[in-house]
């Protein structure tokens, strides 16, 4: 079962709003904007995995895999990894796991390049 386009758009907008609100709240705690954003997007990603697993069990409309990957790519990789473990979700789909692994490698590469550039 797939989401209707208006539901998908609503969920994407709701996710963006939630990330923005959480980022503002966490930033207010003086962690810094980058950390605030990363923590917030990870919480939203974790919630998306839980919601999608629940919808799967009930046979209802699911969050598209592309949206889960976009959330991970946007910085929610820790939340995605924890969500996969806690909810035992998306752990058997090889194609999904490969794409997720590539996202992790890309992000690690960016972090390594950043640190190499900063320390030079």
Tell me what the structure shows.
The protein has one domain. The chain contains four helices and no strands. The chain has helices at 5-28, 33-58, 65-87, 94-119. The longest helix has 26 residues, at 33-58. It starts with a helix and ends with a helix.
Poorly predicted spans: none
Helix coverage percent: over 70%
Q: Describe the global form.
A: globular
Could you say how many structural domains there are in total? 1
Sheet with most strands: none
Number of strands: 0
Mean pLDDT reading:
86
Order of helices and strands: HHHH
Distance between the termini: 51 Å
Taking all Cα atoms into account, the compactness measure Rg is 15 Å
| Computed structural class | mainly alpha
The amount of beta strand, in percent, is under 5%
Number of helices: 4
List the helices and strands and how they pair.
Elements: H1 5-28, H2 33-58, H3 65-87, H4 94-119
Structure in a nutshell:
With about 120 residues, the protein is mostly helical. The protein has helices at about 5-30, 35-60, 65-85, 95-120. It is built from four helices and no strands.
Task: Considering the chains and any ligands shown, give keywords for the structure.
mainly alpha; 4 helices; 0% strand; 120 residues
């Amino acid at each position: 079962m797939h989401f209707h386009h208006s539901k998908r758009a609503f969920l994407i907008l709701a996710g963006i709003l939630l990330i923005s609100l959480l980022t503002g709240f966490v930033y207010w705690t003086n962690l810094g904007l980058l950390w605030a954003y990363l923590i917030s997007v990870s919480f939203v990603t974790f919630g998306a995995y839980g919601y999608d697993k629940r919808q799967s069990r009930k046979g209802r409309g699911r969050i598209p895999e592309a949206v889960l990957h976009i959330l991970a790519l946007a910085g929610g990789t820790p939340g995605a990894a924890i969500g996969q473990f806690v909810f035992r979700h998306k752990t058997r789909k090889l194609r999904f796991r490969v794409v997720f692994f590539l996202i992790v490698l890309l992000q690690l590469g960016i972090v390594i390049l950043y640190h190499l550039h900063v320390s030079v």
